[in-house]
Specification:
Number of helices: 14
Radius of gyration: 21 Å
Shape: globular
Mean pLDDT: 95
CATH topology of the largest domain: 2-enoyl-CoA Hydratase, Chain A, domain 1
Low-confidence stretches: none
CATH class of the largest domain: Alpha Beta
Strand order of the largest sheet: 1-2-3-5-7-10
């Protein structure tokens, strides 16, 4: 009898864990071989992960890694709106804000989730079915390969909402796109389209997801067939504006979202992985992963300490503003905040009330 190397038996409640048959080069199911699909299942909150979901992802990654019949892991989310938008801001605002010791324990779990991806014995493919933002971007970059549908958006949110992207982006993003582009993304938090992410080296492949009159077309909301405008500026992948954007929205209304091409691209890549020597594949992945691990292992514990303490100040203000503020204003008043701090005001509840939208009179 074969030994069981899993840490514990577990019933998944907040994520989905599925073993889907591998397919050969002719598309036929292969007997006894599978790809493990780990699926974030919180579409109402854009597949943000709760504390319990993180635990389940860790155990699912371990289960898939240990399963002798699994060839590859596909990490994705339910629906077509989001792969993952990071931590659950409701949980952050209502439980962790103002509570550094608890958030420090939460970040231990988060760090273990990232490490469970980076140390998986099987290749991990991020199937980017929608937005990959904040912590979602970080766990996505921990994966070995990313394949996206072309309405997906990529980016950070930390400095806008009271955190720093120290759950992996400050470690991984410069390795993908270079320090200058990483600095821009991690500070001002402007999202990239899937085509911008592809051009920057963040993705392996992008496929269309909009079907109009039975035919797939590229995302009509971004420029996908032009590299430069009349001024010589690169606009490939940039969001359209004005009349071009209006036309794109009309075309989008006439179509329907269909992720079948994304599934085909992911399955095709998994099939290619099956036709490799498994131990040589694992060694190659681990030799390449060390570039991520070098930075991740060096910084993750110090970052965890800082992120916990930050929940007493900017994290507390930012996450509560996002969770409790009106839908059209979920950020603090940055100018007033800076003015009060410049005047020497201490970080306390009075300051938070002065700068937070949920306390302002309409």
């Amino acid at each position: 009898m074969l030994a069981n190397h899993n840490l514990t038996g577990f019933s998944y409640k907040e994520i989905l864990f599925e073993k889907r048959p591998c397919r050969d080069v002719n598309g036929n199911p292969v007997e006894g071989l599978f790809n493990a699909w780990i699926i974030l299942n919180n579409p109402q909150q854009y597949n943000s992960y709760t504390t319990e979901a993180i635990k389940e992802v860790i155990l699912a990654m371990r289960e898939a890694s240990n399963d002798r019949s699994v060839v590859a892991v596909v990490f994705t989310g339910v629906g077509d709106k989001a792969f993952c938008t990071g931590g659950n801001t409701k949980e952050y605002a209502e439980y962790y804000a103002g509570n550094p010791p608890e958030y420090k324990q939460y970040m231990r779990l988060f760090n273990d989730m990232v490490s469970s991806i980076l140390m998986n014995d099987k290749p991990v493919i991020c199937r980017v079915n929608g937005m990959r933002i904040g912590g979602g971007q970080e766990i996505g970059m921990a994966c070995d390969i990313s394949i996206a549908q072309d309405f997906a958006r990529f980016g950070q949110a930390g400095p806008k909402h009271g955190s720093a992207p120290d759950g992996g982006s400050t470690d991984f993003l410069p390795l993908f796109v270079g320090i200058e582009s990483a600095m821009f993304s991690c500070t001002v938090c402007d999202p990239w389209s899937a085509y911008e992410a592809l051009r920057s080296g963040l993705l392996t492949e992008v496929v269309p997801a909009l079907k109009v009159n039975g035919e797939f077309i590229a995302n009509p909301l971004v420029y996908t067939d032009q590299w430069v405008n009349k001024k010589g500026q690169i606009i490939y992948g940039k969001m359209k504006t004005g009349e071009d954007l209006a036309k794109g929205k009309e075309l989008m209304k006439a179509g329907e979202m269909d992720l079948s091409m994304l599934d085909m691209a992911v399955e095709h890549f998994c099939t290619r992985l099956m036709y490799l020597m498994p131990n040589c594949l694992s060694k190659t992945m681990n030799s390449l992963r060390k570039h991520k691990l070098e930075h991740w292992d060096k910084n993750k514990e110090n970052n965890r300490d800082w992120l916990a303490l930050n929940m007493m100040t900017e994290g507390k203000a930012g996450f509560r503003a996002f969770n409790d503020g009106p839908k059209d204003k979920r950020e603090v008043d940055f100018i007033k905040l800076r003015q009060m701090l410049a005047q020497g005001h201490e970080w306390n509840d009075d300051l938070i009330k002065e700068v937070s939208p949920q306390y302002q009179k309409i």
